[in-house]
Amino acid sequence: MERIAALARLELTSEEIPRFADQLTAILAYADQVQQVDTSGIEPDTSTAVTSAWRDDALAPSLSRDVVLDQAPAADRQAGLFKVPRVLGS
């Protein structure tokens, strides 16, 4: 539970760890129970299937790189890049 909490960047108290561990165990047991249901004789339900979710791409004008970089905070115009705060490995 502590490893999962660390991966999710959660700080759990010593009282929360066993409670969440029990809840996670129950969720995983239920998911396993659902996976065991025999659905081999059941036809797929196509009534909710999306038939045309994709559209054709359409060309449209966009802002120039210089205009965007001029409006961006902490942009490096020479490199043509945005500077953003570090997210990984911090």
Topology summary:
Layout lengths: L1 H6 L8 H20 L29 H7 L3 E2 L4 E2 L8
Antiparallel strand pairs: 1-2
How would you characterize this protein structure?
The protein is mainly alpha-helical and 90 residues long. It is built from 3 helices and 2 strands. It has a two-stranded antiparallel ribbon with strand order 1-2. The chain has a domain of 34 residues. The model has no long low-confidence stretch (mean pLDDT 87).
Biggest sheet details: 2 strands, antiparallel
Unreliable stretches (pLDDT < 50, length at least 5) are: none
- Our estimate of the beta-strand percent is under 5%
Our measurement of the CA-to-CA distance between the termini, rounded to an integer number of angstroms, reads 22 Å
Question: Structural class given helices, strands, pairing?
Answer: mainly alpha
* Gyration radius from CA atoms, angstroms: 25 Å
Q: How many DSSP E strands?
A: 2
* Overall body shape: flat
* Series of secondary-structure elements, N-terminal to C-terminal: HHHEE
Q: What's the rounded overall pLDDT mean?
A: 87
- Summarize the amount of helix as a percent range: 25-40%
- Give, in spatial order, the strands making up the sheet with the most strands: 1-2
Number of discrete helical segments: 3
Features:
mainly alpha; 4% strand; two-stranded antiparallel sheet; 3 helices; 90 residues
